[in-house]
Amino acid sequence: MTAANRKAKSQQKTDNPVIKVLRFIWEYLMLALGAAVAAFAIEEFLVPCTILDGGVVGVSIIVNNLTNIRLSLLTLVLNIPFLIVGYKVLGKEFLVKAGFSMIMFSSFLEVFAPMTDATHEYLLAVCFGGIILGIGVGIVISFGGCLDGTETVAILLNRKFNFPVGRTVLFFNIIIYAVAGRLFGFERAMYSLLTYYITSKVLDFIDNGMNQAKAAMIITNEGREIADMIYKQMGRTVTIMEGAGLISGKKDVLYCVLNRLEIYELKKLINEADTSAFIAINEVSEIIGNHIKMKGSSD
Questions:
Q1: Nearest to 42 by CA among 57, 30, 64
Q2: Between 94 and which of 54, 63, 90, 293 could a Cys-Cys bridge form, CB atoms 3.0 to 4.6 Å apart?
Q3: Which tens digits make up the pLDDT trace of 33-90?
Q4: Dist CA 105 CA 109 (whole Å)
């Protein structure tokens, strides 16, 4: 079977409407599951001990403690501006999946709120709450969703000014924890920072990294087509190299640096262009030099 025939057969399988519907259902079930797990960690471990998550959820917990406005309502309302920014930066699919994830998260916060708290021991809350929260957030991110809108702002700053996403999010969270320390005592702020660290490490394991950047190496027969799609749809430039497989023969090797929230979008894009492509995702510890971006884009 030739490469063209293999691609056509794979494409027919991908275009099968039943498979598309099943994949759609599976993705949204997993988004709902991840949102439920994260909400359980927040309501049953962190909130009872006034330990904060980062980003919008952390701000919501602070406001909830000061005003008694329901946490579920706060997380949903405060995320709306970030959803709008996310739509402009990451597109319609991100808006739909992130919006769905946030609605599910808010709903499950409401479900778990009246239940008996899991613990009031701070150390247990930090350890188990951080781990469970990391699992929930990791599931959501793995399926293209998002629970905290501050990362979209970090991505926007990264595309415009090349600020590292991870460091930008950490900067936001340090400000939130400093405010929490002023209001609730710096012991709570330190517990919150430790929780954030544990959650990040769990995300490292689940989502293959919490770092500012990822490197994708793509081996394909459709190098120019995929490179153009990545540039036009994601605003990321691609380095194209020639390679040769021991059995498969001549191949195009693409190298692209992007952030972790774009990994899902990249996988989907490549699957649509060439389902036989091979993709390897690696961590990038440091980037030196300028990165060429699409002119006139939101980058």
A1: 57
A2: 90
A3: 999 999 999 999 999 998 988 889 999 999 998 898 999 999 999 999 888 887 877 7
A4: 6
In the prediction, which pLDDT does 270 show? 86
Q: How far, in Å, are 144, 163, 176 from residue 133 at the CA level? A: 17, 26, 18
pLDDT in tens, 145-183: 888 888 777 777 766 777 766 677 778 888 888 888 888
pLDDT of residue 9: 47
* Burial track 79-89 (b if 16+ CB lie within 10 A, e otherwise): beebbebbbeb
Contact 126, 52 (CB under 8 A): no
Tokens representing residue 238 in the block: 């691609």
Q: What is the pLDDT of residue 297?
A: 40
pTM of the full predicted structure? 0.67
